[in-house]
Amino acid sequence: MKKFFKNEWINIIMVVIILAMIIPQTRTPIAIVFNKLIASNPGVTDEEERPEIESYNWILEDRFKNEVDFNQFKGKVILINYWATWCPPCIAEMPSLDEVYQDYKDKVVFLFISGEDLEKSQGFMNAKGYDLPVYRMKTNYPDPLEGYKLPTSYLIDKNGKIVIKKEGAADWNSAGFRNTLDQLLAH
């Protein structure tokens, strides 16, 4: 009899989880929590395997509708994050990105690029209390900085080499990632 009730509770819990995933109002929050739980530290690419940006010819648009020339960031450490307001893994990693941004915004170039309307992207940032700078692409990205999978992030060193390429949610506010940033800034 004890085993029967134990199995019943497991079945009830599974039904509740399945129903929560089916109901649209609960699906996104559950997906965000799940992505936070599975977010890993972004891995650094071995030095000899790091691809280099082919060109800095790329025009972005900031939230004020000003054109931003990617060429102005040449020689700097850059973090590019492709994201969207509707993307649960993107939303899951935003708190850790915001924490890193608060500590490194004067040393590292942060580019949060969305294909959505800038008002919508900025509205999301404002609603969540994030200070992250949002952009839209006005011209195509330079190779190999594609961002078809969301989220996709790139950490680029001062020489234009991609130190980290991470697809999916990550825990950016880790000691390991901060150490990587500090090393790149020191060179």
TrEMBL record:
One of its GO terms (molecular function) is oxidoreductase activity. The chain crosses the membrane at residues 9-26. Keywords: Membrane, Transmembrane, Transmembrane helix. The keyword Metal-binding does not apply. InterPro entries: Redoxin, Thioredoxin-like_sf, Thioredoxin_domain, Thioredoxin_ResA/DsbE_sf. Residues 44-186 form the Thioredoxin domain. It comes from the Bacteria. This is TlpA family protein disulfide reductase. It comes from Zunongwangia pacifica.
